[in-house]
Amino acid sequence: MIDSSLKDIAAALRDRKVSAVELATDSLARIDAGNPKINAFVTLDRDGALAAARAADERLAAGQGGPLTGIPLAHKDVFCTEGVLTTCGSKMLSNFVSPYDAHVVSLLKAAGAVMVGKTNMDEFAMGSSNENSHFGPTRNPWDTTKVPGGSSGGSAAAVAARMVPIATGTDTGGSIRQPAALCGITGIKPTYGTVSRYGMIAYASSLDQGGAFGRSAEDCAALLNAMVGLDDTKDSTSWLGLDLNESGKLVPNTDLGDLSRELAIPLTGLRIGLPKEFFAEGMEGDVRAAVDAAIAEYRKLGATIVEVSLPNARLAIPAYYVIAPAEASSNLSRFDGVRYGHRAAEYGDLNDMYCKSRAQGFGGEVKRRILVGTYVLSHGYYDAYYIKAQKLRRLIANDFAAAFTQCDVIAGPVSPSVAFGIGEKSDDPVQMYLSDIYTIAVNLAGLPALSHPAGFGVGNLPVGLQLIGNYFGEARLLGAAHQFQQATDWHLRAPAGF
Fold it and tell me: Do the beta carbons of residue 140 and residue 34 sit within 8 Å?
């Protein structure tokens, strides 16, 4: 069943052709066999998974199952899980067992999904390669000498290697879309605020957004359907837009609707915008060829291609690397060795304990970003850097708003190259940061975007195509990607040996 769609797996479970316990057992066996090669999982919850699977079988036997009941699933290790380690890929939290579930985890439990374990990630979601983990790098299933992308590389690799059919991730500057592209699967980052951040350990609060990985857009729609929803009691940034009520007044809209509702809609008349800035210098030739071929396929499916402009997109990297580290500097100040997490074994006084615990608990990239963030927030530099970056953020959002007056979705590359070698960019942070050059602007604007497989490049490594939508336009993105996947088979291909 591991190569079947979620719809087919759910049907087999309902028809009792397979049990949830059998699926969970198979998933755990595949992890045992494959994880030593790629290091996608840092924690397995065997007993919890089998208990959840037995409960799912009982629900299914009673005719109460839903689309995800009994489906094996992995959570990125940034989501708190009650009674299970939640490490964020860091030594700082390597012994932290969460006393509660993240909102996303609670929703997926209620939907009947079976969590088998927690996936590896760049420490505190800071990275583009999954090399910054305290537990060692995750390896790309297509070529284990290459990175899977980051920071959600463990989740992407787990789905690509057919260890689980679906997984959760988070996206702060491309951390779902980039690993989805490099691992040859589908990943979606929804509109900021549509997935609760409660229990999702914060990196940059105004940018972080939970999302979904699956083999196809259809699978991602099913997973995301269970994840979105207003959480106005625990997440002050939870937001699903406004509607007009019968009296003509604006009221909160607490429902995005069924995100699979546009899957069957043909693409005739869909306007796809191509930002000229995305197709300038910087993209490798093999990526350009795959992206061009994917755009040609969309044209064959009835879409109209128009050129648009995002003139401030080039400023996304510098704006992001001021705003995100500033927020990280504030968010990570809670990790001080006092209440939970790593504490230095020897220290002189309280200040010495803070210093040594943080020096020992945080990795190099996290320290770098904390220092940058503290600097840009310091007296005399706040106006010069942080305020200017926020102004650039508004200009970037305005560019997208203008572009969407000319098109329905925006398309372009996800990453400038296919997966690069482990260690290849470790000594050059700027080159590593440029891996996200096509994805970061989306987070600054708070827009939804997805990556779907679009072909292969050098070394038979996957290439992804990025689709960007207007606010709350997830259903349209998923529908467009699904129609592409009905006409192509890139998303059906699996890495050898998995």
Answer: no
Peptide bond into 133 cis (omega under 30): no
> Catalytic site residues?
76, 151, 175
> Exposed (0-12), middle (13-18) or buried (19+): which is 272, by Cβ within 10 Å?
buried
pLDDT digits (tens, 9 = 90+) for 185-218: 999 999 999 999 999 999 999 999 999 999 999 9
Asked whether the whole model's pTM tops 0.90, one would answer yes
Check: CB of residue 56 under 8 Å from CB of residue 112: yes
Contact status, residue 115 vs residue 223, Cβ threshold 8 Å = no
| pLDDT tens for each residue of 351-368 | 999 999 999 999 999 999
CB atoms under 10 Å from CB of 345, counted, come to 8
Radius of gyration of the chain (CA): 21
Give the pairing of strands 449-456 and 186-189: antiparallel
Name the phi and psi angles at 212, rounded to 5. -130, 145
Q: CB–CB of 90/14 below 8 Å?
A: no
430: amino acid identity, one letter: V
Sheet containing 304-308: order of strands = 41-44, 114-119, 72-76, 166-170, 210-214, 186-189, 449-456, 462-469, 409-413, 271-275, 304-308
